[in-house]
Design goal:
Structural class: mainly alpha
Strand content: under 5%
Order of helices and strands: HHHHHHHHHHHHHHHHHHHHH
Distance between the termini: 14 Å
Number of strands: 0
Shape: globular
Radius of gyration: 21 Å
Length: 406
């Protein structure tokens, strides 16, 4: 901490980071925080506690839209906490999921019986619902509509297993496709993006499925520990009688083949990810979305052919994540980053893998699509000295954010 102070005031460090990164804001300014109500500050605290990565990405947005995205995330996180809580009976969960959108207008509604790690968003739901009601009506309508549709879909899958890829896509629509649709409609409601951004539901749903398939790969171990299963039976049944059999050492070869098939299926959404990203016009919304896209692609490349997925949560390195946040500021950089990680996957494809040809084809399709948009340029580059300085400043700024919010 003394070393941090010796470099100057944290706000000065933040301003230097912002300058060095061309306006890439990873930390909310003290002025912005001080201008918030106590309840809104509490919401941002919950956002950081439940997802530090999304909290950091949200800082790239401004004002009302940033607040709307924060509240949207917390409402869906509360809904997801109900769905995930395996200690609750179906008799309790199903009515809650169906009616959850109505709780946004009930000032005193809270739920104190959850055992999930993120239960604070249910226990203090009155704070979140208060800030929801403080949002502009246009934002409220989007959040209520998505919350209602998602709750109904989640309830459907409480009593239905993911047997096929079609089931996975349907479940993914409810829990992630709707999220991207809602975010895009919030962008439109802000007036910062055209209304058409939230209208192409097929495209938006495909982007959501990309995120969801990455999530279910990442959460394999955690879901098994909690008694949840979202990998399609038609994939994993080749490896054993139960999804948990994939983690057995004697099954590691077919388990990794199953993993590679699921990664390949997720890659099929990348052309839609690129198309969606190219349609965004507001720079801060573009950057917000681009960070999510490139970090997801980097994560997918880390998953491919990786036995560690069956042993614990696999993530990209923090330094890698910071570099991606810095680089993903324009479409040329996004194309270059996605091309790079697609190529990483291509280099790792085992020729003996049953999905080998399919994986090669989709990777080549992605690369051809990227190259068809123009010559590939190098990712936004710094000189070795300025890159090291930028990374140092970004790391210090990130550490400061973690300390003040702890």
């Amino acid at each position: 901490m003394d070393f941090l102070r010796s470099l100057g005031h944290p706000e000065e460090i933040y301003n230097l980071v912002r300058y060095r990164l061309g306006g890439c804001r990873l930390v909310m300014s003290k002025q912005d925080r001080d201008s918030m109500s106590d309840s809104l500050q509490t919401c941002y605290k919950y956002l950081d506690q439940t997802s530090r990565s999304f909290a950091a990405v949200t800082q790239t947005l401004d004002g009302e839209l940033r607040n709307a995205v924060c509240i949207f995330y917390l409402v869906l996180r509360a809904l997801d906490t109900v769905e995930d809580d395996m200690t609750l009976s179906l008799e309790t969960k199903i009515p809650m999921l169906h009616n959850f959108h109505t709780y946004l207008y009930q000032a005193d509604w809270r739920f104190t019986e959850s055992q999930e790690k993120n239960r604070q968003v249910l226990e203090d739901f009155p704070t979140i619902s208060l800030e929801f009601r403080n949002l502009a009506v246009g934002y409220q309508k989007v959040i209520v509509d998505i919350c209602h549709k998602m709750g109904v879909g989640m309830a459907e899958f409480l009593e239905k297993k993911v047997e096929s890829l079609l089931d996975l896509d349907k479940y993914g629509h409810y829990v992630s496709g709707l999220s991207v649709i809602g975010l895009s409609q919030l962008f439109s409601a802000s007036g910062l993006e055209d209304s058409s951004i939230g209208e192409d539901t097929r495209l938006l749903n495909s982007v959501g499925l990309f995120f969801q398939k990455i999530n279910i790969i990442r959460d394999y171990v955690d879901d098994q520990l909690e008694g949840r299963a979202f990998w399609p039976r038609e994939m994993w049944s080749k490896c054993g009688e139960k999804l948990s059999d994939l983690a057995k050492p004697e099954n590691i070869v077919p388990a990794v083949q199953c993993l590679n098939e699921l990664v390949t299926n997720a890659l099929q959404h990348v052309p839609d990810v690129l198309l969606y990203q190219s349609q965004l016009r507001n720079q801060k919304i573009f950057h917000f979305s681009a960070i999510l896209q490139v970090m997801s692609m980097a994560t997918l490349a880390t998953f491919y052919n990786n036995q560690q997925v069956f042993k614990g949560v696999v993530k990209i390195r923090k330094g890698q994540a910071l570099k991606l946040m810095m680089d993903a500021t324009n479409m040329q950089a996004v194309r270059a980053i996605i091309y790079q990680y697609a190529n990483e996957i291509y280099q790792k494809i085992p020729l003996t893998d049953p999905s080998c040809e399919c994986t090669q084809n989709i990777v080549l399709t992605i690369q051809k699509l990227i190259l068809s948009s123009g010559p590939l340029v190098h990712r936004y580059s710094f000189s070795p000295l300025s890159l090291s300085c930028a990374l140092l400043m970004a790391t210090l700024s990130w550490q400061y954010l973690m300390m003040v919010q702890a």
